[in-house]
Amino acid sequence: MNQTPLPVTVLSGFIGAGKSTLLDALLANRQDLRIGTIAGHALHDLEQALVDLAAQQRFDAIVIESTAVDNPMDIAEHPAFADDDEAALAGRARLDTFVTVVDASSFMRDYASADSLAERGIDIGDEAHDEGRTVVETLVEQIEFCDVIVLNKIDLVDEAELEEVARVLHALNPRAVQVRAQSGNAPVDELIDTGRFEFDATASAPGWLSILNGDTADEGSAGHYVYRARRPFHPDRLWNLLHQEWPDVLRAKGFFWLATRSVVGGSLSQAGGTLRHGPAGVWWAAQDRSEWPTDDPELEAEIVAEWFGDPDDNSIGDRRQELVLIGLDLDADAWQRKFDACLLTDEEWALGADGWRQFSDPFPAWDVEEHDHDHEHDDQDHHDHGPGCGCDDHRQ
Question: What is the pTM of this model?
Answer without folding.
Answer: 0.85
